[in-house]
């Protein structure tokens, strides 16, 4: 029984990492797909001539530096490791914007390696600037990217150099522009709780439009674990559709549709240069670690109490991977930390 429980935990942990990986890949595809398609030297020149300017112009609309923070100098070639807080946001018209996904990323451009440290959205921690403790994903609702960065920095002990936030709402028009996406729905999905938005997604359709895809992501009347799995399926289907239709030339238009739903303090030139640098080198190797924890309740509200051992190990990973003097062969392996016993990874949406 114990062995089966450990297998289930490991599967859930891997799926959580995969969700974070897919969100990261989606951002890279939106801002760097042109560079990926034109990754050969001669074609890369064509990208610079015909697409680079359009991409940079669209990225200007997403550039949103945090007040009080000076833009970091951009080198012609990024050689030093840098860090970024990746935020996956699902904001409805009648709800505050909370970051459903929080990933602390360490990028090492020189050796094409990326570390992703995932933080459960219900993690109980101090919200910097609010003088209280709460779910870590509430920091975005209280104070946007700045409060999220400050709170995660306090939680992990390391500030992030940049942030990137993407809202699922902005992907509705993208899906429609692509003519819909394929989703493996074999039974009607009905959102019927009295306090939830009402909708039905019919099973067995060859393609689903943007609103149906958004509803698929938002459905939450079974479990948060299944909702996380649906995020994974949706993002994977979106990426597959873009590549299958060979619509890379539409990247500037697709980015324009995201509009206010994609924000970052990375400058457009930094993103373009980094994308070309990463994607013309060897394929980036992405490693992940998820901070696990125990479920608990305070005043009837569900939280995750992060395991101290996991937080400590995450800090060690970040320090090791962020150090430019760390040789590739000396990078810590995220898989070295075994899964903790008795962890509760079911996180109810409240």
Structure overview:
The protein has 350 residues and is an alpha+beta fold. It has 10 helices and 12 strands. It has one domain: Nucleotidyltransferase, domain 5. The strands form 4 sheets. Strands 9-6-1-2-3-10 form a 6-stranded mixed β-sheet, with helices on both faces. A two-stranded antiparallel sheet has the order 4-5. A two-stranded antiparallel sheet has the order 7-8. α5 packs antiparallel against α8.
Keywords:
350 residues; six-stranded mixed β-sheet; disordered C terminus; 10 helices; Nucleotidyltransferase, domain 5; alpha+beta; single chain; 43% helix; two-stranded antiparallel sheet
* Mean pLDDT rating: 76
* Gross geometry: globular
How many distinct beta strands?
12
The total number of structural domains is 1
Proportion of residues in helical segments: 40-55%
Order of helices and strands: HHHEEEEEHEHEEHHHEHEEEH
CATH topology: Nucleotidyltransferase, domain 5
Give me the side-by-side strand order of the main sheet.
9-6-1-2-3-10
CATH architecture: 2-Layer Sandwich
Task: Name the poorly predicted regions.
Answer: 11-25, 29-40, 338-350
Supply the helix-strand structural class. alpha+beta
> How many DSSP helices?
10
Radius of gyration computed on alpha carbons: 20 Å
Estimate what percentage of residues fall within beta strands.
15-25%
* Quaternary structure of the protein: single chain
Distance between the termini: 30 Å
The level 1 CATH classification is Alpha Beta
Q: How would you sum up the major sheet?
A: 6 strands, mixed
Pfam families: LytR_cpsA_psr
Family: Belongs to the LytR/CpsA/Psr (LCP) family.
InterPro entries: LytR/CpsA/Psr_CW_biosynth, LytR_CpsA_psr
Protein name: Transcriptional regulator LytR
